[in-house]
Amino acid sequence: MANKTKRETTGYLHGFTHEEQDRLYHQARFLEHRVHEGLPFRRSRRMLEIGCGVGAQTDILLRRFPDLHITGVDASGTNLERASKHLHGLPWAKRRWELHVGDALKLGFDADSFDAAFLCWILEHVSDPTSVLSEARRVLRPGSPIVVTEVLNATFFLEPYSPHTLDYWKAFNEHQIALGGDPFVGAKLGNLLQTVGFRDIVCDVRPIHLDNRTPGERAEFLQFWTDLLLSGATSMQKAGKIKPATVRGMQTELQIVAHDPNAVFFFSFVQARATAY
Hints:
277 residues, globular
């Protein structure tokens, strides 16, 4: 029986511009209270962060866990250059991190090298998440915690009804799939972690449901979401996935939603926690 051909990751939907790097720092700070509360790293000392990018999550982890040393791995040298500059400027991060350009499918570390692992918004961009998690397990000591936070793009809902935005979102997800990623990987984390041998797996679905009860937070999140959507526009237009009229229509709709007194925003992501054995 012929083996299935594995998909390859062929690009990053958001690009590697300075503006995108700035957006990643803002995103990490904006979502910090949703992503980082109660993480199980109090006893950890040597963490592996796979897909550390510009060091935005590294910054927060080092601040929240003062006894932690983080080794970050990312495929983008451009992002790691920005991460290095950023982390060098943080007083609390001094001598507590190192960065490596590397392949998450073949980590250059020995078994049992780390006692914690953290992956955030990375598996959505890779074609073989099972192998990434298998490598993470290989380099973790038995009993070490891993935390994986991922998107579940099928959960997006917006009121008032915004057809251009929904068309854009559909194209956004299809483009990510075409690039080798998976915009729905959050729902699959339990299976993926179990497949490679992790135990004590807990998948926490975290809804973001904003309406008239929290108008200030709703307004802030709609602006954040607008920036996130537009960050993919250039890549999508170059690939012929959308037309400029769709982008303009989406921008108009998002402005209407932002000023509607009964607007609703809903989105869920998934944070999985498990233990290496």
